[in-house]
Design brief:
single chain, 263 residues, alpha/beta, Rossmann fold, six-stranded mixed sheet, four-stranded antiparallel sheet, 7 helices, 10 strands, 33% helix, 23% strand, disordered N terminus, ATP-binding, ABC transporter ATP-binding protein, P-loop_NTPase, nucleotide-binding, transport
């Protein structure tokens, strides 16, 4: 799917309206983390949130996930107000969310079994995603036997196997070394192209945001506000060699300049 193929007239499926988030600190002070956030995202977009530490990126993602109730405002997904969590919104965190006492296959099957799907469908879905994330031959391995990148692939397969419409990712590759991180970014794009879900991705890595995204939401420092939304003009599919191209470096410089203004 290319940026050019996104229908710019399509009505947004996710609408963020007037979101404000306040927290009370230990000394009783009110802290305004997010203020007046208004955004709209279309189906099958890949969106990244980026901004300096403390700008509320992860907080906004948790509100979209239904893990946190905003102080003010609402979020509509496909016309319905988000209240609490839902299997339609999958979440991947930076920390591993795999169960250490379960094998690769059983980790991926876990959510499917909670849906009480027939055993043959559970097994078929798990096998499909084991193959898609390249873990064939590791089905019966436990997380302690896997590298960090392999555990993250289990994490992705676990969430994608439940066929979420909306995938929310909070710096999922932040703890990985650079080579593994680059490989996982390419892997994620292939999974996204296969699944066709909308992805909202939090990162502080400029190169990661440019490589992955259709659009990048730049948040200003606390209280977090939408500073600008940057369209990424790079065509799809995107492969590793794109990172060395002049057009990629130009997009990265553009994003760097936007963030430098708030340094």
């Amino acid at each position: 799917m290319s940026q050019a193929n996104l229908d710019q007239t399509e009505a947004p499926s996710l609408i963020i309206q007037n979101i404000r988030q306040d927290f009370i600190t230990l000394d009783g002070t009110e802290l305004n983390v997010l203020d007046n956030i208004n955004l709209g995202f279309r189906e099958r977009e890949f969106i990244s949130f980026i901004g300096h530490s403390g700008c509320g990126k992860s907080t906004l993602l948790r509100i979209i996930a239904g893990l946190q109730t905003p102080t003010q405002g609402s979020i509509l997904y496909k016309g319905k107000k988000i209240k609490g969590t839902s299997a339609a919104r999958g979440m991947v965190f930076q920390q591993d969310a795999v169960f250490p006492w379960l094998t690769v296959r059983k980790n991926i099957e876990f959510g499917l079994k909670l849906k009480k799907l027939p055993r043959d469908k559970v097994r078929a879905q798990a096998e499909k995603w084991i193959a898609l994330v390249g873990l064939g031959g590791w089905e019966d391995a436990y997380p302690k036997e896997l590298s960090g990148g392999m555990r993250k692939r289990v994490d992705l397969a676990r969430v994608y196997a439940n066929t979420p419409d909306l995938m929310l990712m909070d710096e999922p590759f932040g703890a990985l070394d650079q080579q593994t991180k680059s490989n996982m970014q390419t892997q994620l794009l292939r999974l996204w192209e296969t699944a066709g879900s909308t992805v909202i991705f939090v990162t502080h890595d400029l190169e990661e945001a440019v490589f992955l995204s259709d659009r990048i939401v730049v948040l200003a420092p606390r209280p977090g506000r939408v500073k600008t939304i940057m369209d990424v003009s790079l065509s799809r599919p995107r492969r590793e060699e794109l990172r060395l191209s002049e057009e990629f470096l130009a997009e990265k410089r553009k994003l760097h300049e936007l963030l430098k203004e708030d340094a």
